[in-house]
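Our consortium's second objective concerns turning raw sequence data into structural hypotheses that experimental partners can test. To show how far this objective has progressed, the report includes one record in full. It was chosen at random from the queue rather than selected for favorable results. The single chain below, 377 residues long, was entered without modification.
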Amino acid sequence: MRKKIVVLGAGMVGRAMAIDLSIRNEVLSVDRDRAALKHLNQHANLTTAEADLGDSQAINKLIASADIVVGAVPGFMGYKTLKTVIQAKKNIVDISFFPEDPFGLDDLAKANGVIAVMDAGVAPGMSNIILGHHNAKMEISEFICYVGGLPRERTWPYEYKAPFSPIDVIEEYTRTSRLVEDGKVLEKVALSEPELLDFPGVGTLEAFNTDGLRSLIKTINVPNMKEKTLRYPGHIELMKVLRETGFFREDKIKIGDQQIRPIDMTTQLLFPKWKLGEEEEEFTLMNVIIKGIEAGQQLEYKYELLDRYDPQSKTSSMSRTTGYTCTAVTQLVLDGHYNRVGISPPEYVGEAPGCFQKILEYLEERGVHYSKATKTS
C-alpha cells in the first residue's frame, strides 16, 4: 500500500525528492512559489499545493493525513517548521540545516512519539552516516570530510553557482567553524586554514573551515574531527573581502534617508550571479577519511564521491546526492527499518544495524556511487 508523504519546499532539492519518493508513494509537494511547483505537475502519484510554509496552521492542515513529512525549507525557517511537524505528531526527515540546536526539540519529539531525523543530506548527512557506521565498530582517532558542489564551467567573477539555498551558502562563510583537535572543541573563523588539494577528474580545489560537524561534536567521541568546504581556487579571498568589508552584516546601516541591512543589498546583487541554471552542468565531490583501530588493527577508510548533473532526468548532482540520501532515510522510516523516537542526527541512522548498507544500495540504484578504499598501517 502506498504511503502518503508531504514534502515541504519545492526548490531544486525538494523537487528531486518529491519525484523520487513518488515512485513508491503518494506525494504532496508544497511551496509558495508557483513557478517551482510547475515542474512537478506532469509526474504520476505527485500533487502540488501553494502555501506559505511560514504559517504553522497551513502546515498542520497540509500534513494532517501524512504518514511522514520531508522538510526542505531554507535554514532560517527550518527549526520552526520542524517544531510544527513534531507538535502535529508526524514523523519527519529534514534537510533544512538550520543553525539552532535540534536537541532542544528532543523532549517534545519523545513525548509525541515522533521519529525526527535532521541534517539528512550529503554533508552533513551521508558523511555523518558513514562515521556513525564505523564508530559502532571501531575506536576512531580521526575523521575528516572534504565536500563541495561546483559548476563544471568556471564563470567569472565568482566561478561558483549555489546548488542549494544561497542564503545558507553565505551562512557557511560567516558562522564560526567548530572542529575537534586532541579532544577539545575549538572555534575558528569560517574560510580559515586554506588547503590546495588535487582531485582526479576535477583538478585543484581549495578547502577551508566551515561549521559542518554540527551534531557530531555532541554525539561522537572522536578526538580529531574537521569538515572543510571545497571551492575553485580564489573563492576564499573573494568571500573574505565581502565579509570583512561588511557586505554580509545583518545590522542596519543608514544610507541617505534609508535604513538597510547590508546582507539584503548583497543578496540582491550576488544571487543572480550565483543562480544555477536549470540544466547547467555541475558536480558534487566528497572525500571522507576515517582512521582508527578495529579488531586490534590500525585502519584507514576512505570514501570518495564524485557525482555529476544527470542530463537524462535533468537533476543536479547536489539534488541527487543530498536529496536521495534524505529519501533513502525517509524510506527506512516508512518501512520500519529505522524507528528511534526523538531527535536523530544522521550518525544515529548510520549506527543502526543494516541501515548504512540499505542507504548505499538505495543510492546505487539511482547512480550515486561511493567508492571505498581501506588501508592498514
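The partners drew two points from this record. The radius of gyration is 20 Å. Residues 317-334 form the longest helix (18 residues). Both points have been shared with the crystallography group to help prioritize constructs.
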